[in-house]
Amino acid sequence: MFIDRARVRVTAGAGGNGCCSFRREKYVPRGGPSGGDGGKGGDVYFVATDRLSSLLDIRYRSHWKAERGRHGGGKDQHGRQGPDEMIPVPLGTLVKRLDSDELLADLVEEGQRFLAARGGRGGKGNARFVSATNRAPRFAELGEPGEEQEFVLELKLIADVGIVGLPNAGKSTFLSSISAAHPKIADYPFTTLSPNLGIASLSDYRTLTVADIPGIIEGASDGKGLGHDFLRHIERTRVLLFMIDLGDEDPVGTRDTLENELARHSAAFADRPRVYALNKADITENRARFDEVAKDFERPFSISAATGQDVDVLLEHLWFVVDRLNQMQDEDEVEEAEREYTYEAPYTIEETPDGFRVEGQRVRQAVRMTDFENDEAVRHLQHRLKRMGLFRALQRLGAQDGQSIAIEDIEFEYRSD
Q1: What's the CA gap between 23 and 21, in Å, rounded?
Q2: Residue 84: Cβ within 10 Å count
Q3: CB-based contacts of 170: which residues, under 8 Å, 6+ apart?
């Protein structure tokens, strides 16, 4: 089954809790704090692989979770980091945000990865909080929860050549004749219900990847027929092969229909090289009208996908066009611009009817990792927020005693002292 769109939810592993313990050994007086740190939670990645051809696995497993980190232990034992969760996806997968449809990643190369959700940081054990003024801290941090995200994955097939044509133009027959692909072929329209990929072998170990796209009809870009669902797969192809039946009553009108649907779907096709193949030349009546039809096309090829007539000539021409495009791309390649780093404030403060709400990764992390049932841990949180300058910022904004300060789902009462 060919699945080219799927919704997926990913949850990274939470960090392990830090340990609060003290050394208790014979003949070792005042052993001191010995709580180890918790391990970091596992990350979740999308990984591109050529072993898959659709998003079928993700359609039937819509929620992926990474393992949490192990908790810290006594005797300064640190918890093990949770293993990362790798989600394999086929080459050509687009990763988009579910809520905004923003494109986050385009996975087109073998092994290319995208960090979908980051694992939570492990909590520090009490041994990490020893200072000159606090020789025996009796608190430890909790592990930070892992990120949870939802994405929409879309697959666009990657191929050198994309075959476009009306239903029953002979696209599937052509693909089966040049490769090991075996799409279902019959004598009725819309035989092909999903895109098919085939690899054509040429001499000198050369290969061409060819995609057969389900038949496009007039109005396909508006959702008619099957072509609308699969037009996006043609966007990845380097060359467009227009497959037109020589027995068509109006081959020029057919070409114009195909061009119109491609143009309405995306402007990206405007500069895509085109090659025209007039198929079913094995039929005597069709062969007789080739010269007449060819006048309205640019260097068309007369072929018969059923008998293999002149198919090798067409493949050599396609290889020449694709190879020339690859050389042009290599010449035009430039080094990636250096990534620009911009300053990001540690937090933002927004006024609310009851007081203020504080947002920011650092303050959220500090709150999430605090054990609010431990008074010493709460005092440590207050000290961290003070060092971040949060209280001075609230004072400058005119915060009054008794106002609510919300961070995450926790509310504090502001005190100027």
Answers
A1: 7
A2: 18
A3: 243, 245, 279, 280, 305, 306
CATH: 3.40.50.300, 3.30.420.40, 3.40.50.12780, 3.40.50.510. Which one for 161-328? 3.40.50.300
In which band, very low, low, confident or very high, does the pLDDT at 225 lie, cut at 50, 70 and 90? very low
Is 72 a residue whose pLDDT tops 50?
A: yes
> What pTM does this model have?
0.71
Please give the span between the terminal C-alpha atoms of the chain, in angstroms, as a whole number: 66
CB hemisphere CA count around 105 (13 angstroms): 19
Count of other CB atoms within 10 angstroms of residue 24: 10
Q: Which CATH number fits domain 348-413: 3.30.2010.10, 3.30.300.350, 2.60.40.2550, 3.40.1160.10?
A: 3.30.300.350
pLDDT band at 220 (very low <50, low <70, confident <90, very high): very low
Q: What is the pLDDT of residues 99-118, one digit of tens each?
A: 888 889 989 889 999 999 99
CATH fold for domain 5-155? Spo0b-associated Gtp-binding Protein; Chain: A, (2.70.210)
Amino acid residing at 297? F
CA neighbor of 412 nearest in space, from 391, 389, 387: 391
Domain boundaries along the sequence of the chain:
5-155, 161-328, 348-413
Average pLDDT for 11-15: 96
**Structure tokens given for 85:** 């969760």
Average pLDDT, the chain: 84
